[in-house]
Amino acid sequence: MHWPGGFGTQLRLDGRARDLLTTTDGDAVVLREDALTAGVAVDRKIEDLTAEPARPELAKMVGATGGGRLRSVIDATVPHERAAGTPLYLLLDDVAGATLIAPFAWSQSADDWMERAAERIAAADDVPHAARRRMEGICAGFRPGSSALAPDGTVNLATRHNVASVPPLVAPDDPEGWHELAPHPQVAMRRARRIDVWLDDADIVVDAMFRDSCWRPDGTEVAVHEYGIDARIGPESGKLTAVQADPRVLPYPECSAAGVNAEWMTGVAVRGLRTEVLERLRGVDCCTHLNDALRSLAEVPVLMPSLR
Asked: Which of 198, 212, 292, 190 is nearest to 245 (CA)?
């Protein structure tokens, strides 16, 4: 997520995703791979959208706006991508969240970012209404009484986000563990997901992680969101038999309270997670980023035939 034209210009999204099979001989075989590029206006409206390999039907999504309703547009435009659990579908599903969190990158490039944002919200009429709406109760981080909230229930801009320095994604001893990661522009965010799946006797085992990070002017990479997910799936039932979330980095002290609620998904059919998570984890019981991490496990059954 970056802005070639600088602050206040079009946001560019460059995404890649793949399914990688490691054989018993240790060979890495790419089964499927997709790339996505998009241009998004300041108001989060999609201005251009292309994929590689090409999907001409994606042109119908131009004009849609990032947010929760975007997923309905995706399902209406390319329903077969969701049904097939393609890497492209995971990229499209992340457009809503990516366009929301991207501007955080600018906060690490200017010490007075929060002050300037507060002044703009207080003085300008052109600030989107969402920036001033009441957030109280929408998630664990914004639970009543949260340090993240101002007295009127809007975001407390005086409370700075928690961030943590993080190591590079690519491990030196496993260079093929991630696809090629292009050098980042000076001001940029990166959203990364890894979902590892293997067979362990009677269970399907999942080790997944999710990270939103950006870079400071000195090159230090810092995460603002990071979760780990450990899960087990019954191979015959296709249902979660165990699931735990590890909230590693989150913006406010109250955010991590939602982590234990991941266990509420035990017994759910994995292919149904994209809807069931939103039904079961809501309001102060949920964390947007935990929900996304759990929902992304819905494609795990698509990987299983290759393992067998």
From this structure: 292
At 252, the amino acid letter reads Y
Cβ atoms 20, 198 nearer than 8 A = no
| pTM reported for the whole predicted model | 0.90
Tallying the residues shown for the chain, one arrives at 308
Residue 182 has pLDDT above 90, yes or no: no
Q: What is the pLDDT of residue 126?
A: 47
Please report the pLDDT score of residue 201 as a whole number.
Answer: 81
Q: What is the pLDDT of residues 213-269, one digit of tens each?
A: 999 999 999 999 999 999 999 988 999 999 999 999 999 999 999 999 999 999 999
Cis peptide bond N-terminal to 151, omega within 30: no
Q: Are 160 and 305 in contact (CB under 8 A)?
A: no
Structure tokens belonging to residue 232: 């087990």
Angle between helices 273-280 and 288-295 (to 10 degrees): 150
Q: Where are the beta strands (DSSP E) in 85-131?
A: none
Smallest CA-to-CA distance from 237 within 205, 269, 280 is with 269
d(CA 107, CA 244): 31
Query: Residue 118: what pLDDT?
Result: 57
- The residue ranges of every structural domain in the chain are 1-102, 134-308
Phi/psi of residue 140, nearest 5 degrees: -60, -40
Residues 37, 12: Cα–Cα separation, whole Å:
7
Is residue 11 classed as helix, strand or coil in its secondary structure?
strand
**The 11-22 sheet, strands edge to edge:** 11-22, 28-40, 46-52
Alpha helix segments (H runs only) across 111-255: 113-123
Q: What is the pLDDT of residue 308?
A: 76
Cβ contact 30:19 at 8 Å: yes
